[in-house]
Design brief:
2 copies of one chain form a homodimer. Chain A has helices spanning 9-19, 72-79, 141-152, 196-199, 206-211, 220-226, 229-236, 249-266, 276-282, 284-298, 302-311, 316-323, 341-347; strands at 2-6, 25-31, 34-40, 46-53, 59-62, 66-71, 87-92, 98-104, 111-117, 135-140, 157-163, 166-173, 176-182, 328-331, 335-340, 356-361, 367-373, 376-382. By secondary structure, chain A is α+β, with helices and mostly antiparallel strands. Chain A binds a DNA duplex through residues 21, 142, 294, 297-301, 305, 352. Chains A, B: It is found in: Nucleus.
DNA sequence: CAGGGCACGT
DNA sequence: ACGTGCCCTG
């Protein structure tokens, strides 16, 4: 029996928008860790890996591992029936032949119940090799999307070159050549913008304990970002992509942290309670509600924007890194790889899911493009083209 | 070697939007005067003449005249990769087989470098005959666009009739007939602020100072407007690029005259126009405020205003008249001509480039439609249809 | 001014 | 699916 409650149906909408063109049918693998989806794209060139952590749900229960074979198009049709701010509950029983979806408007008095037939999909669960990446680039997702969109006009392949000086995306085609160069923002983790906001909140220390102090370090905030994070990121990219083991501090903090803290503060409330209100002031999740009214019309927005501000309380750094326009490059070794723009363009459809995107590259190895969000992440892998000239 | 820097990439975007449907490939003729483009439209019916003055660039250098054969579609693709506010630099070396474009975001750290292959286009450089136009109409570009757009729905041809009373655009087709009449705004530039939309040509009875009686002014203004003001309208069309030859002759009235007047305003008048001075003062004072308000509401406004000073550097008043919603008609002789709406509709794509458009007409002679902006202008020429019934 | 949503049309 | 135009918001 699976029962998972998502506070905002919008998340699922965005995920489906992001992935549906790459993958039309896939298994949602549910375990007590959360829900994962892993699949090759239809042309078997790229790999998509979605992870929704248990902690990303306001309620989560999965008695037994189960694989739900879903037609993404069908699921999308149904999910579109939910309001962006509806509370979405997924439910499946042992039979695994049907997925029930429940949409509840926040103000109640409107309930949608849907059932979707499931299908059998034989899933080739390919392990993703552990890789230590030579270059990691952390940039605004919109910037990445823009570059890819632009270059797509001129050619079919992008060459991505990373060096100390910056990242250079280039393409050429019939009409000419193009290149866009991004210079890294100041090396240090310093964020140029006003981090003042985050200060207002409570314990930044808290995260330490969550982290398990795997990395003993004094000034975690900036450090982890620039310094120690990269190995972790790579590590987390292993086959089960988010193995609970030694996950990167950064992600964990952003997600688990907030959740746990939530519970801690209020003694593990799973559901909305009056007290929550108080917490909300500081919390990320709550903030969304506020947003909602504003967002109601727009439909989108809330998550990302609220994140930046609302999240700040906890990991100041996490909030910051999410919102800034910085370009960060972490480089072990210069890298130059060529990829099919078409796929990158598809990956970029995940832009609405996160403020920033992380590119991980090593020569000769598939590129990893990651969009991390509060409840989990989407990762894409794409093998480079051979001719890197 | 050509190197030209445009402060706002947006200008080039707009130009390409405006022209690309009429002309798909054309030579950009670069000289130390600036950059010009002249071409027949694809069906060889209309003529397009673009002029970007050297002074329109924040930096301009052209050692040697050169003709860059450009595919406008390709150029547009590339220019779309620039942000509207990016600084755009065009560069071409002697080889003239490639045009380099550099886009720099104002805040830096993002640089786009593009190269476009050039082509050989044998250009028939047709001289544009000097013409003294019998009728000149100066009206808001949006108004013109609106009329053309509306009439296009009903027929394929527009008849444009200009008389003392105003301009009348009419068309007819299967479903019926249509006509829009614009009455010239009150002589001295009075403008009713209350005009609702551009759509309706308001037949204001504002002959008097209805707007703001606050300004009691001598009648002479009106007359002089009628009498000698028209030259001013012409004046806004700067010295002509298109027909550099013998402007002296017939053109003198429309063009040369205006030039002189320019000077006249500043110092002494070359030609008798005693009232002129007075007129200016009159104009300047009363209506100004109102107009401004109206313009702001429209939203576009500002940009073109600069033209006034850049182009002519005349009085402040000129700036004012540029942004107003006034319709000015300068008439030597009544004119009635018929044109293909399709072309006018294409010309109207230049609307984003300027607040106002100037129509110059004489019987039996091609219509000249001009959009003047800070950095230069675009002119279109279109021969009338024969049946002027 | 830029970005994002939305409805539209190709 | 994608590009476009329009409107609104930050």
């Amino acid at each position: 029996m699976l029962e998972a409650k998502l506070e905002q149906a919008e998340l699922l909408k965005k995920i489906l928008d992001a992935v549906k063109e790459l993958v039309t049918d896939a298994n949602f693998d549910c375990s007590d860790e959360g829900i994962k989806l892993q699949a090759m794209d239809n042309s078997h060139v790229a790999l998509v890996s979605l992870n929704l952590a248990k902690t990303g749900f306001s309620e989560y229960r999965c008695d037994r591992d189960m694989s739900l074979g879903v037609s993404l198009a069908s699921l999308q049709k149904i999910v579109k029936c939910a309001g962006n701010n509806d509370i979405l509950t997924l439910r499946a029983d042992e039979s695994v032949d049907v997925l029930a979806l429940l949409f509840e408007a926040k103000h109640a008095d409107r309930v949608g119940e849907y059932e979707m037939k499931l299908m059998d999909i034989d899933q080739e669960h390919l392990g993703i090799p552990d890789t230590v990446y030579d270059a990691e680039i952390d940039l605004p997702a919109t910037e990445f999307a823009r570059i890819i969109r632009d270059l797509k006009e001129l050619g079919e392949s992008v060459k991505i070159e990373v060096s100390k000086e910056g990242v250079r995306f280039s393409a050429d085609g019939d009409i000419g050549t193009a290149s866009v160069t991004l210079k890294p923002t100041d090396k240090r983790g310093r964020r140029p913008d006003s981090d003042g906001e985050d200060s207002d909140e409570e314990e930044e220390q808290e995260d330490d304990e969550d982290d398990e102090a795997e990395e003993p370090e004094p000034k975690e905030e900036e450090e982890d970002e620039d310094g120690d994070v990269k190995p972790q990121i790579a590590a987390s990219g292993d086959e089960d992509d988010d193995a609970p083991k030694s996950k990167g501090g950064k992600k964990r903090k952003a997600v688990a942290d907030s959740e746990e803290e939530d519970g801690a503060d209020e003694n593990g409330e799973d559901e909305p309670s009056p007290k929550k209100v108080k917490k909300e002031s500081g919390k990320a999740k709550p903030a969304k509600k506020e947003k909602k009214k504003a967002a109601s019309k727009k439909g989108k927005a809330s998550s990302a924007s609220s994140k930046g501000k609302a999240t700040k309380g906890k990991k100041a750094k996490s909030g910051d890194e999410e919102k800034s326009m910085d370009v960060r490059i972490n480089l072990q070794q210069a890298v130059a790889l060529t990829f099919s723009i078409k796929y990158l363009s598809n990956f970029a459809k995940s832009t609405p899911l996160a403020e920033r995107v992380h590119l991980h590259m090593s020569n000769e190895v598939p590129l990893l493009v990651e969009y991390a969000f509060e409840q989990g992440h989407i990762r894409y892998y794409l093998a480079p083209k051979l001719q890197d000239d």
